[in-house]
Amino acid sequence: MTQVSQTTFYLAAFFYTLSWITALGRCPRVSLVLLAVGLGTNFWSIVCRYVSSWPLLSMFQGPFFLPFFLGVLSFKIILRTPPESLLLISLIFILAGVAILFPKDCYLPFLQSKTVFAHLFFLSGVIARACFFIAAVQAFVYLCPDSLVKIPAVPRDDLSFIRWIIGGFAFLTLAMFCGEMWSYLGWGSPVLWDDAMITTTMATWFYYVGFLHLHLFKNWSLEKRSCCAAVGALLVFIFNCYPEMGKYQVPNLQWW
Q: How many folded domains does the chain comprise?
């Protein structure tokens, strides 16, 4: 089953690559079809991975799940908004490429993960990251000159990326709550401070807490909000995606 999941993900990455190439070649319909095929193949890979470890949970599998959730959640945007679609497809292509470098199924399922809280922690966290990436893409397009994105100016009151951040924050909060419940049931403590992923997830959560609080200030311009939303994607990758990259992390890089 693990070999099937690995092979199907390679196939999904291949379709993502073709979708990206055709998007660059300004063939949006072909790119959209290839993206849909890639998402379907990626979904089958996810199912195989889950079945192989069920009812336990194999952590550090986020790199394989993130391109799928990013593509599904942003599919409507990709369908309707050309500049954002190219950036989103490029991001899916990059994330799939990062996942290909992941060690080949070297992590075994957690013995204490036979609880719904473990699965909610994992899936909610991946969905939250996808929402933050979508928000960053929309914020980046907002900040780009019209000559670069080649579309009419984005409305000055466009707050669509704010809604994605709110959704991502809600899922991240749910992930943290479920993670605390899972930690308490499995190890007798709601927080394991020696786990770098816990610390970095909290750092991401506090960043977006600050963002949403500043959003309430009327004198905080939309340009500043867009900059913070775009920077947030970089922090999400460093704090939440990087720790899952296994042996392909930068050697000797410490979080504290």
A: 1
- What are the angstrom distances between the C-alpha of 72 and each of 43, 75, 90, 152, 216? 10, 5, 14, 26, 30
Q: Is there a domain that residue 24 lies in?
A: no
Residue 109 forms part of a structural domain:
yes
Residue type, 174: L
Contact 231, 178 (CB under 8 A): no
**82-100 helix and 62-73 helix, angle to the nearest 10 degrees:** 170
69: Cβ contacts below 8 Å, ≥ 6 apart: 126, 127, 129, 130
In a domain, 141, yes or no: yes
- The string of pLDDT tens digits covering residues 42-99 is 999 888 888 777 777 776 788 889 999 999 999 988 888 777 889 999 999 999 988 8
Tokens of 208: 């977006």
CA atoms within 13 A on the CB side of 250: 6
- Which residue range(s) make up the domain with 244? 56-248
Check: pTM over 0.90? Answer yes or no. no
